[in-house]
Design a protein that fits this description.
- There is one protein chain.
- This protein has helices spanning 19-30, 83-92, and strands spanning 15-17, 44-49, 51-59, 64-73, 78-82.
- It has 99 residues and is of the alpha+beta class.
- The protein is globular, with a radius of gyration of 16 Å.
- The protein starts with 14 loop residues before the first strand and ends in a 7-residue tail after the last helix.
Length: 99
Amino acid sequence: MNALAPISTFAPASAIVDRAALARAAEIVALVVESRNTYPILGNVRLRGDGGTMFLTGTDLDIMVDVAVPATADAALDYTVPAAMLKAILKGAPKASTL
């Protein structure tokens, strides 16, 4: 009996980013991403961090958009999220208050 290779552990990641900048980037990427597609993954936006920047990437296999947003984002940040869900979360997120 062959043993299956272990699944790598989930690496939590975090990011601190301006909500307005992230919402604008999500709107731009969502213009390319189609929610109804033959391949469900094409309805997602890729969120990727590299320390000082968060990248949002979307494609429909003909066009790819990659938007950079200034952020404090872990290099371990590399996830996909449905574009519609990301836009809904950002729409409902509270605006930052100033002191």
